[in-house]
Amino acid sequence: GRVAAEAARGGALDVLHRVFGYDAFRGSQQEIIDHVVGGGDALVLMPTGGGKSLCYQIPALVRRGTGVVVSPLIALMQDQVDALRALGVRAGFLNSTQDLDERRLVEAEFLAGELDLLYLAPERLRVESTVRLLERGAISLFAIDEAHCVAQWGHDFRPDYLALSALHERWPDVPRVALTATATEATHAEIASRLKLQDARHFVASFDRPNIQYRIAPKNEPRRQLLQLLRSEHEGDAGIVYCLSRSSVEKTAEFLVKNGVRALPYHAGLDARVRQENQARFLREDGLVMVATIAFGMGIDKPDVRFVAHLDLPKSVEGYYQETGRAGRDGLPSTAWLAYGYQDVVQQRKMIDTSEGDAAHRRRLAEHVDAMLALCETVECRRVRLLDYFGQKSEPCGNCDTCLSPPASWDGTVPAQKLLSTVVRLKRERNQKFGVGQAVDILLGRKTAKVIQFDHDALSVFGIGADLTDAQWRSVARQLLSQGLLAVEGEYSTLVLTPESSEVLGGQRTVTLRKEPERVAKAGRSGSS
Ligand code: ADP
Ligand code: ZN
C-alpha cells in the first residue's frame, strides 16, 4: 500500500513526520522503534501519555506485513482505528462487538496484505480460527498493549492474557513488543516471564510526571472539599473525579451540578449509550468534569485534563498512579488530589476480608492497600515515595503537598495508648460491639445516649482524651489502623487489638504520627470521614 511503501523507503523518522505529523521523537521512542524494526523483542515501560503507541505503530508501518496489536480496550478499538485511518494508515480490528460481515471484511483485508495494523481483543487469540487466520497472513510484529494484564500479582489481571505466551511458540521469528504504564519490579518481572520475553530488551522510561502536583488530604466533607478545590484552583477546567461506588458517583455528580459545575456521571451501571455519550462529550467539549468509577479512563487520550480527584482511597499505588496519570498529558501544571479518611481504611480492609480467592490473593490485596496507605501517611515527599514504589530513586520534588508545606510528625504514643486502652475496656462488654465513634465519644467525655446506656461514663478512660479534638482522634485511629496497630472486624467495624497493639500498651513501642494541617484538625465534626 501507499503508506507502507513510503514508510519502507523513508524510515521511521520520515513516517513520524509524514504520517503522524510530529517533528521529533520523544524520550526513547526512536531507540525502541529501531530495535523493533530490526526484529528485536522489547518490553516498554512508559508512563501514561508517554507515547507508547508510536513504538509499535511505526515499526508496523516500516516492516513488511501487518502489525497485530493485542489490547483489552475493546470499547476504544473503533476510535483508535478511525484515528489511524484518518491519517491514512490501513487499520482494522477484530472483537466481539462486530457482526460476522464486518469480521469477514477485516479478515479478507488482512489476508490480502491490505492492513498495516490489526487490533485484536485478547480473547480472540483463544479461538483456534483466529490463530489459523493469522497463520495464513504476513505478520510484521506483535504488540501487547496493557501488558501488566498478564501479571497475577498486579491489579488488573486478565486470564485471557496468559494465552499470549503461545505467540512466541507459533511465531518465533516475529518480534514482540509488550507495553505498559504500570510497573513495579514485581509486575515487570512477571510480564517478562509469563510472556516469555526474557530475552527482550527493556526500555524503562522515567515514571516522573513533573507537571502533576500530588496532594493527599484528610477527608472531612469530601464533596465540599472537592468543590472548594474546583472553585479556588480549577474553575472551568476539565477534570476527572473518581469515586468507589456507583451511588457515590451519582450523588457527587448531582452535587457538583447543583453547585454550578458542569459534571457528568460515568459508571458501569449506566446505560451503554449514556456512558458513550458522556465519554464523547468529555473528550469533545471543554471544561467538563467526569465523575466516574475506575471503569472510566483506560486509554482515554484527552491532553488537557487539569485535575484528577479521588474521593475514595484507591486499592493500589499502581491504580492511583495510572488514574492520576490521566491529568496533564499536555505537560501543563495539573493537580492530583486525594481525600481519604478513617472510613476508607475500614472499607478497604473489609473488602479484602470478604473478597473471594485464597489466602495468597488476600495477602496480595492487603500489600497493595498497605503501600497505598504508606503513601498517604508519609511525611516525606509524595513523589519520592511514588517513584520509589516503581523502583526509581529521586530527590524531594518541591511540587507536592508535603514538599510545599511539610507536615510535622508528632509522638502519638500516649494518645495511642489512651485509644487502645479504651478498646481494651470496650472489649470487656459482653456481646456489645463498638466502633470508632463510641471510643472517641468516651475519650472526649461526651455523655451521649449510647455512652449513658452502657455506663461508659463510669470507665476510667472516660474524658481522658479531651486534649485532642474529634477530628484529631479520628486521625489517630486512622493512622493506627494504617500502621497495623489497631484493626476492625465484623459487620459493625468493631475495634479490636492486633498483636502489635500490646507492644504500644506495654510501652515497648513508640508511635509516630503525621500531624494533619491545622484547618482540618480544627474542624470540630468530622462528617463522613
Ligand atoms: P500512551 O499510550 O503512552 O499513554 P500515547 O501513545 O497515547 O501515550 O501518546 C500520548 C500523546 O502523545 C498522544 O496524543 C500522541 O499523539 C502524542 N505523541 C506521542 N509521541 C509523540 C511525539 N513524538 N511527538 C508529539 N506527540 C507525540
Ligand atoms: Zn515532593
UniProtKB/TrEMBL annotation:
Reaction catalysed by this enzyme: Couples ATP hydrolysis with the unwinding of duplex DNA by translocating in the 3'-5' direction
Entry keyword set: ATP-binding, DNA damage, DNA recombination, DNA repair, DNA-binding, Helicase, Hydrolase, Isomerase, Metal-binding, Nucleotide-binding, Zinc
Domain Helicase C-terminal: 222-373
Cofactors, names only: Zn(2+); Mg(2+)
UniProt-listed Enzyme Commission number(s): 5.6.2.4
Helicase ATP-binding domain location: 33-201
GO MF terms, alphabetically ordered: helicase activity
Keyword RNA-binding: no
UniProt record similarity statement: Belongs to the helicase family. RecQ subfamily.
Name listed for the protein in its UniProt record: DNA helicase RecQ
Species assigned in the record: Streptomyces tremellae
High-level lineage: Bacteria, Bacillati, Actinomycetota, Actinomycetes, Kitasatosporales
Encoding gene (name): recQ
